[in-house]
Structures are given as structure tokens and as C-alpha cells.
Amino acid sequence: MTLVEEALRIGRIGPYQLQAAIAALHAAALCSAATDWAQIAALYDELARVNPTPVVLLNGAVAVGMSEGPGRGLRLIDKLGASGALDRYHLFHAARADMLRRLGSRSAAAEAYRRALALTANGIERTFLQRRLAAL
Q: 2 with 40, same domain?
């Protein structure tokens, strides 16, 4: 945390400092509910200005969904999905599924979880996604 604060004070803020600040906020939170999602969303906005990749934009949309509500997050995620650039990215579908789940759209969330599962081979991620799907 101290190193991140020092790096940000230098004044030449680039993608690495922003990513470190985001990671530090996650690390400082005792749980997801205690995470400063609004600050993380603001940092992703800055990161998107210097590195506007689809994954950075997706992560920012998730942070907005966590800070401003799943409806807002889902709208941003769906807007990103319109280009098709994230169709084969399992975390796009997982993020979309989570917003849908939080909105109570169980069948749409289940379909999104299934799409995410079809795209990942990582055992830990698969187990997590299977648990979420089963809970629906």
C-alpha cells in the first residue's frame, strides 16, 4: 500500500500504477462488500483512458455494477458485448451472469454461466462457475 501511494504521488501515473492501485484496494478490503468499488471504478476509468482494451473496459463495467448496481453494470457489459470482441472470453460471460443473477434473472444467468463454462478449462474457475450455476 505504501509503495502504491508513493508511486501515485510522483505524478506520472500510467497503467502500472493504476493497476497497482486497483489491486491494493482489493487487497485492503476484508471482503467483497467492504471493497471500495466506486474508487475501483474511477481507477478503471483512468486506466481505460490510457489502455482502452476490451478487458479493461469489462473490468470497469463490473466495478460500476458493484458500486452503482447490477442493472447499470449489465448495461455496460452488454454494450461491450455488442462488438463481439469478448464472445470467446469466459470472464465476459461470467461477469454478465453475475449481474443477471444479482438482478434475479435466473434463466438468463444460467445460460451465461453455461457459456462461461464452455469457454474455460481452468479447474478452479470451472468449480466456481459450476457452484454458481447449481445455486440458481
A: yes
